[in-house]
Structures are given as structure tokens and as C-alpha cells.
């Protein structure tokens, strides 16, 4: 439980993030520290009160309603509205894929906390099509005032630039990368009733019948090229632009032999598919029985999938910093962490400089894999 002592407090309207106040044994100097204090106190309540059955978010809301926290919450809200670099009645969040997919789920996990931090509603705008290019073109063209941001996915957004697609934007130059929130290995998966029990089964069939086996993906040309180079087989690529949700029925119906996407999607559709192998150098804690390509004897297959949030180029530094702070506050929530880990996603917490450096690393990795994309035989889009 919270153990508090008496503090001499300024009136809420005069309090600012520069004041340092003790809360439950923690020192609060910013509004983000306030949320962290609530998180820490909620952890204490769950630990000390063994019979407590409320969900984490409910515990935190109860703490935030306590008099000392409530006073600081009001102060944060009033101070933030005066000092904010974001003059937006509401925000738009562009999602370049269909509702229900990984990009939509990323937004939904963070939405409540982001709205609380930014003090306004955030409206999702779905703009699916052209492997995400439609949504990202609209994001790149948006007014750079901080009122419009969107979801970004790597290597998808990088690939559109690297492969010379005429999409009207550059994956690095036309965006301000605010933060990346999660990453996961990619998985090659098959339907539950597929005859291929292991990645070796699939590769051996591809060796025996070059070009006959199909593999579907969403903006995954580079990733598939890397697999072809690492395994030495010929596969036929079937691009799907509507997101992973559009691939699942194709896979389950036997229209494609396999698919590639973030390993988290295997966890969400376990009753319909199973993974044969994952990319990267480390096994997944939630897919313990699935080998990496390296463990299966195929080297150099390392591209992973990552999800982040970006705005259009030219967005003011102050607006970027405010969005980044709101994202970090949301990522502090243990419920968000738990949800990510359960879906084979690794949580990321980055300041603005770290987000830019990570973006550059992702772009470089995609560039290194890009030459293999020329080896792909591409079929008509599903």
C-alpha cells in the first residue's frame, strides 16, 4: 500500500513538472514520473494484498484517484495544456493496414494512455493498400504540426524505398521517427493441416520442385529474398496488401503453401497455423519448440519485424518530444508489457535519439538484404 507523509504543496494551477515532490517513497519531477509512481505503487498493492483481484489498470486508476495523486494529475493536465506544443482539438493516427492487424493492435494497446497524456482523443484512420504505401504517402503529406502521426512497420516501409518503388515518399527522409515500441522475429508458418512438419520438409520439397511452392507476405519481398539466399531454394512469392488478416484465410484454405510475418501472428492464430522456423539469432520464449533458421542449418536469415510511430518530416522538435514522452508513459504500463510478451513481442522504450538510431539500423539491415530480392519470382497479388 502507499505510505505517504505530509507535503507542502503548491496549488494545482501553479504546479509544474519542475517541482520535485515525494510520492509513495518516489520522487516525482515530471508528469511521466507521476505515472511511473502509480505503476510502482500498483505493483506494491498487488504484492502486499494477495487477495487483490482487480486488473492492473483498475489498480492504477484507483491509485491515481487518491488525493495526492489526484492533485498532481490535475496539475499535470493544467500545466500540460498551457505548455503543450500540440495545438490539436483531436489527433489522427494513420494505420496503413486493415483493422485487427498488428498495426491496429499496436495502436489499441497504447490509445488510452496516449489520450490521457496528450489530453485529446486520437482517431484511427485506416488507409490500407499497396503494401502500406497508401497510408504512408498520406502520412508523409500530412501537415507537420504534430496533430497527425501514424504507425510504421519495418522492413515494410524501408522496402518500398530500397526497391525503388514509385510511392511518393522516402522511408527515412520523409518521416520523423518518434519511437519504436515493439519488435519480433519473423516466422515462416504453414496451416495446421500442412504436410510440412519442419522447415527441412518445406525446403526439401522446394528443392525437388523449384518455383512450385508459394509463400505469401505483406511487404516482405526483402525478407523472402533473404530466405531464398539463405536456403538456396526457389519459391514463388504471393504479395498480400490487406495485412496479415488477409493472409490467414489464404493459408488456411490451401491457396498458399506458407507465409511469412511477425512471429506474434502465429501466437494469435495458433488454431489455424504453426511456425516452422523464425528469423534472428535467438529463440523465442513463447515459441520454444520452433528453431531459428540458424539452428536448422540455414545462415544469414536475420531480418525481424518492428512497429513504431512516426510523423511527417518537418514536425517541430517540441511536438516530437511531447509525443515521445506520451509513448514512453504508455510503455511504462505493466499491462502493456505483459500483453506484448504474451504475443512474442519484445517491448522497446526509446527516447527520440534512440528511435532515430534504431530506424537507421533497420534501414541498413534492409539494404543489406535487398540484393536478394531480385531472386524472387512474384505471382499476382491476392
TrEMBL record:
Family to which the UniProt record says this protein belongs: Belongs to the UPF0065 (bug) family.
Superkingdom of origin organism: Bacteria
Species: Phytoactinopolyspora halophila
CDD domains linked: PBP2_Bug_TTT (cd07012)
Protein name: Tripartite tricarboxylate transporter substrate binding protein
InterPro entries the UniProt entry points to: BUG, Bug_dom1
Amino acid at each position: 500500500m502507499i505510505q505517504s507523509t505530509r507535503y507542502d504543496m503548491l496549488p494545482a494551477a501553479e504546479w509544474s513538472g519542475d517541482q520535485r515532490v515525494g510520492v509513495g517513497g518516489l520522487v516525482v519531477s515530471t508528469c511521466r514520473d507521476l505515472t511511473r509512481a502509480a505503476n510502482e505503487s500498483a505493483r506494491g498493492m498487488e504484492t502486499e494484498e494477495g487477495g487483490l483481484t482487480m486488473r492492473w489498470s483498475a489498480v492504477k486508476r484507483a491509485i491515481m484517484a487518491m488525493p495526492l495523486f489526484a492533485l498532481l494529475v490535475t496539475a499535470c493536465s493544467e500545466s500540460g495544456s498551457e505548455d503543450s506544443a500540440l495545438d490539436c482539438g483531436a489527433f489522427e493516427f494513420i494505420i496503413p493496414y486493415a483493422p485487427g492487424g498488428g498495426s491496429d493492435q499496436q495502436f489499441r494497446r497504447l490509445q488510452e494512455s496516449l489520450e490521457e497524456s496528450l489530453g485529446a482523443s486520437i482517431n484511427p484512420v485506416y488507409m490500407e493498400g499497396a503494401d502500406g504505401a497508401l497510408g504512408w504517402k498520406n502520412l508523409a503529406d500530412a501537415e507537420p504540426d504534430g496533430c497527425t502521426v501514424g504507425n510504421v512497420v519495418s522492413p515494410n516501409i524501408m522496402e518500398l524505398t530500397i526497391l525503388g518503388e514509385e510511392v511518393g515518399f522516402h522511408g527515412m527522409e520523409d518521416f520523423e521517427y518518434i519511437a519504436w515500441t515493439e519488435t519480433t522475429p519473423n516466422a515462416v508458418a504453414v496451416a495446421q493441416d500442412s504436410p510440412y512438419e519442419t522447415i527441412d520438409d518445406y525446403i526439401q520439397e522446394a528443392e525437388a520442385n523449384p518455383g512450385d511452392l508459394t509463400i505469401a507476405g505483406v511487404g516482405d519481398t526483402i525478407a523472402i529474398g533473404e530466405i531464398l539466399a539463405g536456403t538456396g531454394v526457389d519459391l514463388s512469392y504471393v504479395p498480400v496488401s490487406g495485412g496479415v488478416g488477409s493472409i490467414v484465410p489464404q493459408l488456411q484454405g490451401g491457396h498458399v503453401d506458407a507465409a511469412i510475418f511477425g512471429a506474434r501472428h502465429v501466437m494469435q492464430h495458433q488454431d489455424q497455423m504453426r511456425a516452422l522456423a523464425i528469423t534472428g539469432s535467438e529463440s523465442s520464449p513463447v515459441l520454444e519448440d520452433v528453431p531459428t533458421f540458424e539452428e536448422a542449418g540455414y545462415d544469414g536469415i536475420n531480418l525481424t519485424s518492428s512497429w513504431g510511430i512516426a510523423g511527417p518530416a518537418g514536425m517541430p522538435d517540441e511536438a516530437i518530444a511531447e509525443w515521445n514522452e506520451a509513448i514512453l508513459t504508455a510503455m511504462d504500463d505493466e499491462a502493456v508489457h505483459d500483453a506484448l510478451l504474451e504475443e512474442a513481442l519484445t517491448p522497446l522504450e526509446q527516447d527520440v535519439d534512440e528511435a532515430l538510431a534504431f530506424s537507421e539500423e533497420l534501414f541498413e539491415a534492409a539494404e543489406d538484404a535487398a540484393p536478394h530480392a531480385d531472386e524472387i519470382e512474384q505471382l499476382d497479388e491476392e
